[in-house]
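Table S4 entry, Class I SAM-dependent methyltransferase.
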Amino acid sequence: MNRTQEVARLRVDYQRELARGTDRFHEPKRTECPWCGSSRLRTRLRTVDLLQHKPGTFVIDQCRDCSHSFQNPRLTPEGLDFYYRDFYDGLGADLTEWVFNGRGNRKRYRASARALLPFGTPRRWLDVGTGHGHFPQTARTVHPATVFDGLDVGEGVEEGKRQGRIAEAHRGLLTELAPKLEGQYDTVSMFHYLEHTTDPRAELTAARTVLAPGGHLIIEVPDPECLSSGLLGRWWMPYFQPQHLHLIPLANLRRELESLGCTVVAVERHEPHIPFDLTGAVLLALVHALPPADDPWRAEPPSGLQRNAREALFWSSVPVLAGVYGVEQLLAPLIRRTRLSNAYRVVARV
């Protein structure tokens, strides 16, 4: 079955769901910060789905007291299922595989794996939010004696095991599986995972549960204090709506880890930068402006004229995108040293 046929098949189910509206995909709007409980909130961002262009509007509020940013109103489990569908799996599987297994990401995975070298050789490592297991596959070149397992809610984690990228696949939520995995790992990684979760604090508690005494937790997340977030606004890729539910300032994450009895042994705000802010902004704006794609969440397929115009406009913009990407890669070493760096890393010992 080709993509056009698959889209036509899926359109029936998507349109049936959308006929009931998208308001039901949101919880009631919060009046207090989920991190510190303050009622002093401000709207930081209002946007639409710039990733898949599914219907809906999304708001990120920010606490004026602790600076925590969060999706408000937050998506319900049903809403999360709807907006994640066909992104990492299904229709989006091939694109996701190409992105996560790309040269740039492999370089980033190696840098993340090397961050654990000063703390000894991990014996057994659990990668939480592993997807298809691309990080463990690359990290094994840095830690060849380490056994890597993966955990995720999607079917990709099982595919990762079939491909030999991970030794064991744990499919489900960390918060639910943690009691069965208590004390089994000396390293747990959460790379761009916490921002996707409904309760980051519960995830950190669960991670501490599966770690053996003396083990290490390594976390990388987008930096909401990055200057690019203000300069680029809704086009700043790490906002990643509607998937990113929480954007956690470094100070908040550090205090939470310490409250759990962890010792923060390393903090890095420069190296974890992903040099894609400007390219991502141009790409998001371009795709948003193009004629519609043939997606099953659109009521009608595009006309032949729309298809041809979309394809012609996109491919004619590729040289511009390539130029922006090239410049961004050249400037990356400099940008990493500034407040434009868009991610940070924390290593904590339990």
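DSSP finds twelve helices and eleven strands in the chain.
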